[in-house]
Amino acid sequence: MQNRRMPPDTVDSAAHPARGSREVAVLGAGIVGAMVAGALLRDGHRVTLIDPGEPGGEQAASFGNGAWISPASVVPMSMPGLWKKLPGYLSDRSGPLVIRWTALPGLLSWLLRFWWAGCSVARVENTARALSALLCDAPERHLRAAAQAGVAGWVVQRGLLYLYPDRAAFAAEALSWRLRQDNGVAAREWEGAALHALVPDVDPRYELGLMVTSGAHCLDPGAYVAALVRQAQAGGARLLRARALGFAFGPGPQGERLTAVRTEAGDVSCERAVICAGIASAGLARQAGDRIPLASERGYHVVWPDAPVHLGLPVMPSDGKMALTPTNGGLRVAGQVELAAVSAPPDWRRADLLTRFARQMFPALGPGHRPDQAPAGPATSRSENSAAAETAPASRWMGHRPSTPDGLPVIGPSAEHPDIIHAFGHGHVGLAAAPATAELVADLLAGRTPAIDPEPYRVDRF
Predict the structure, then answer these.
(1) In this structure, is residue 288 part of a structural domain?
(2) CATH number of the domain that 453 lies in?
(3) What's the total number of domains in the chain?
(4) Structural domain harbouring 278
(5) Cβ(318)–Cβ(170) under 8 Å?
(6) What is the spatial distance between Cα 307 and Cα 50, in angstroms, rounded to a whole number?
(7) d(CA 57, CA 239)
(8) Residues 135 and 429 sit within 8 Å (Cβ to Cβ)
């Protein structure tokens, strides 16, 4: 059942004119928060960024993502027929998506909404269009943002390559590519010898590649976020290292108004607040009266600092569904979806699976096994032979993708307190969608007609 929708112009009232400087608290200093802070500073607002962690630090999803900035990421996780695979997700610990049995009772409502969001082609077409509005020009937005922050070389536009063993595997994803094509995503085919000249170290069993030519990637997502926050600070933003706890309200000419954000370091006076605190956002939204179904799609990565692999652009294999990306820190292999309680400890077998699959894709990394071979036990960086140990990943990471069941972020004013704007729940597209999200938030806060239609992301759609 949906609540009453608050139209965008309720963000501003006669008591708070649409133009002029305001005190705005931005809750969260990840990629979305950093971009929002920059957009609000350009509009002349006084901004306080509030986050308990180091901007770009390992505690944030912004640190450990796959580093892709892809207009092709319009395909939602929930697709027609996916629900039939649920028993496998509960029983197969080696698949790209797993659900912990212990988390199932708490996730049941979210999973039902997840199934409903992808139960028909028409639904996923609507989701793809809404995602495309945030992603279609993401590489260009990031190239400009990186240049303005003084780190132009950290965003690289060389394309993104989707790999397939054969055309049958490509045909199995026909709906995904049709959604991309419908939303203006151009892809170039590479096949056979031409493909392996492009990515010479990839296992020869991959015979077909689809390159999204407009795609880009970030060479160091965590450092990029930190640079954007430093830029915001240089532009006048204040950074408060504290945990946001809730909100304080007071009387206004047209009802209750926001007066402060409550933090563990004391109250921060403000006229507006933007919630973009990753997985912690749902709890803060509840403090504003909004109940948003948000789950942690826990993702993992491993990094080889000195991988003996030549990879000029990021690749994603159809049979692995992980991003293999050249970064400043080395070869990053990121992926997996594990639905579990936020407080549950990491299952490092997920990182071991990434390690094993990367070795399968790149024989130079050491012993691996093909999908048609019997799986070996979980790989470890210290227990294999010396040749493999020389190319073992040096680091591993787990983080929380804040995900809504329909695959779309929540962007818009609170239904109860329109002085508070939500900007969270980006799931797998937080890095790519951050600049467009920031533009939409700035338009809503200023009372401008948004360039991006906010309707699909409204708070009360659940």
Answers:
(1) yes
(2) 3.50.50.60
(3) 1
(4) 1-80+121-155+216-294+404-462
(5) yes
(6) 37
(7) 14
(8) yes
Residue 421 lies in a domain: yes
Per-residue pLDDT of the chain (462 residues; tens, 9 = 90+): 333 333 333 333 333 334 568 999 999 999 999 999 999 999 999 999 999 999 999 999 999 999 999 999 999 999 998 777 777 666 677 777 888 888 889 999 999 999 999 999 999 999 999 999 999 999 999 999 999 999 999 999 999 999 999 999 999 999 999 999 999 999 999 999 999 999 999 999 999 999 999 999 999 999 999 999 999 999 999 999 999 999 999 987 777 899 999 999 999 999 999 999 999 999 999 999 999 999 999 999 999 998 899 999 999 999 988 999 999 999 999 998 899 999 999 999 999 999 999 999 999 998 754 433 433 333 333 333 334 444 678 899 999 999 999 999 999 999 999 999 999 999 999 999 999 999 999 999 999 999 999 999 999 999
Using an 8 Å Cβ cutoff, are 62 and 53 in contact? no
Within-domain flag for 440: yes
Residue 56 included in any domain: yes
Among candidates 203, 179, 205, 230, which has minimal Cα distance to 56? 230
